[in-house]
Amino acid sequence: MSFQGHGMDSTLAHLILRNCKIAYAITDDALTVVEVGGEGGILCDDHEVCLGQSLPDLVPELVGLEEVLADILGGDLPRFELAWANRETVDGQTIYLTMVDLPHRDQTGRTAGILHIAQDVTEMGMVDRQLAQNRNELRLLQDQLTRQNLELAAANAELRRLDELKSAFVSVAAHELRTPLAPIRGYVEVLLDEDVGSLTDEQREYLQTVERSAHRLLTLTSDLLDVTRIEAERLDLVLQPSDLSALVKAVADEYGPQLEGRAQQLTLRIPSDLPPALCDETRAAQIVGNLLSNASKYTPRGGWIVVTVAPAEEDGFLEVSVADNGVGIPVADQPRLFDRFFRAQSAVLTGASGAGLGLPITRSLVELHGGRIWFESELSKGSTFSVTFPVADEPALTPIESTRSTEI
Ligand code: ADP
User: Fold this and answer.
1) What is the mean pLDDT of each run of 10 residues along the chain (408 residues)?
2) Ligand 1 centroid to 321 CA: how many Å?
3) CA 344 to ligand 1 center in whole angstroms
4) CA-CA-CA-CA torsion for 135, 136, 142, 147, nearest 10 degrees?
């Protein structure tokens, strides 16, 4: 072959042909093979034997394509290619060949025959096939993923629908339960006031039980309504600068009878010159009330409760904390304390009633104000719950030096 004519060393040429698994055959203008070279076993096992054969005899794929070969010889076709021809090797393997036929020119540039090149592309084919297979598998996985995403989206939509349905049901049920509570509580009050006749001690006791149960039912329905409002993001605050100290005192007064009934001592530590807090007064009272009510519920008779209002460590916030020396919360239960319907073991053991909705609602309300809620507790020693409210006029937080203690 004329590699040397182009300046390439023949050993190098053969090395390349071997490595690329290429064999070639050169014919004269009568298609008789005059030279064979390159990788053995592709065109024929013994190159010597191939010499003198007709090219179509050597390459059966060319049988019937004599016209094409004639066009190449005649200069009408510059190149002819056959892809994926296959051969059975002596050891029974199938190999795949790509074949190219080109005009073979002599030194004068005249087409003297045909240069037939065959390359074993089995390995490339395998890589190609593997790639195609991987691509197909990937496409399959993508399809699967798309399908699963669609299913997930549908399941999510259904869950949302069911959740909305549940919220609507809870909301309607809570409203319906509340309506008859108003006359029940009203008439019990009339009876207890003895407006329609005097009561025996037994009758009074029974009516007080009815009153307490009605109050519990009212609290529960309010909590359920709050939960559905919070879930639906329909709980709007009416924020205004408020005197947090006065608000805490008012809540403490409201709970006074309950604490007295349990012989609990309440201490208020409220400095006199706190800046106003930015809060919704009804909701802020609900927050403090929930903490105070829990402190009382989960502190045995005769225990103490301390409510402190002070500037928070965090700039621009006021902190209200409610400490008690009650039953405390086991460490294992503490991470779940703000979960809906969760009640710690220590609370259940007291026999105090509750649905486990107060703290999650309190947390949502505090966070709606932009504040934080946290607690510290030790089993059988007591708990301290703290919340923060933003200060209404941010710049002026005067340092407080003296604390006034109010006891009720
Ligand atoms: P509940 O209706 O049970 O009082 P809450 O949501 O208000 O529900 O409180 C959740 C749980 O947190 C209570 O059941 C109780 O286990 C615990 N807890 C709240 N406050 C206190 C407290 N001051 N002392 C001990 N445990 C408390």
Assistant:
1) 57 86 93 91 83 92 92 94 85 88 92 94 81 93 96 95 89 89 94 94 95 91 92 90 95 94 95 93 96 96 97 96 97 96 94 92 96 97 98 58 36
2) 15
3) 7
4) 170
